[in-house]
Amino acid sequence: MKSYILIRSSSDEVFAQSQKWTLEVLYENLNRITSKSQKIRGARIKPFTDKKTITSWNALMVSALLDAYEAFSKSIIWNWLKRT
After folding, report:
1. CA 52, 54, 59, 63 torsion: positive or negative?
2. CA geometry: angle 42, 43, 49, nearest 5 deg
3. d(C-alpha 24, C-alpha 12), whole Å
4. What is the C-alpha separation between 51 and 58, in angstroms, rounded?
């Protein structure tokens, strides 16, 4: 399965003119396409996420920050720890 990243090379106005559409028609088409895409994405089976591994990595990071604070006593590390 291929993935595509869409990159806009022109404004809405320029694209609508190139298709001989009004901006209203362009936005109607975009809304219709977006609705279809969201419906299809909603029907997909979500991939499994191992939450224990993510929690483990987060705990490891906090532990490392605490070690860094103990070693260097930098207030910037303490402020970062308070946010986590």
Report:
1. positive
2. 75
3. 10
4. 11
pTM over 0.70: no
Q: What is the pLDDT of residue 14?
A: 94
Q: Tell me the C-alpha to C-alpha distance, in Å, between residue 7 and each of 4, 11, 23, 28, 73.
A: 9, 11, 19, 20, 46
Round to whole Å and give the CA distance between 66 and 2: 43
Take residue 84 and report the two structure tokens written for it.
């986590």
Q: Which of 75, 83, 53, 80 is nearest to 65 (CA)?
A: 80
25 closest CA partner among 16, 33, 34 = 16
Tokens of 67: 């070690």
How far apart are the C-alpha atoms of 72 and 4, rounded to whole Å? 46
